[in-house]
Amino acid sequence: METKNNSTPFIATHPGEVLLAELAERGMTQKAFAEQIGMRSSHLNELIRGKRPITKAIADKFDTALGIDSIFWLNLQTQYDYDTKVIKASKPDSITLEVSIDDISLASEIKRAISLLKGVSRVAVL
Fold it and tell me: What pLDDT shows up at residue 93?
């Protein structure tokens, strides 16, 4: 029987990070690679920084230029999209925290509150 891994990924790795490492290993600059594949260097930089996705057309250009199959790049993008969705779904949109300073020191309560709020986009104060 096959078991399913229901763990939440800690981080999502964008394919641009993999591309950056590959270019560094080959001693290629982003600008030179952008010229080679016919892409504006600003677009390539946005892709490397995770601001743009790798599309089929871009993956095909990487395949031709680097000799790394386009399906590899598309699978990286798909995995990144999935991991990002799972990570986002595992974090609460908001948290309500009731603070009582009677029992504990202010400094430790603030420290606890800050640790609970990391990654939360909205806070309600009571």
Answer: 65
Number of compact structural domains in the chain? 2
Same domain, 48 and 95: no
The H or E element that residue 82 is part of is helix 70-90
Indicate whether 27 and 85 sit together in one domain. yes
Instruction: State the maximum Cα–Cα separation within the chain, in Å, rounded to a whole number.
Output: 66
What string of DSSP letters covers 19-66? HHHHHHHHT--HHHHHHHHT--HHHHHHHHTTSSPPPHHHHHHHHHHH
Here the CATH number for the domain that contains residue 48 is 1.10.260.40
pLDDT in tens, the chain (126 residues): 565 666 777 888 999 999 999 999 999 999 999 999 999 999 999 999 999 999 999 999 999 999 999 999 999 999 999 999 988 888 766 666 666 655 556 666 667 777 777 666 666 655
Q: Which domain holds residue 38?
A: 15-89
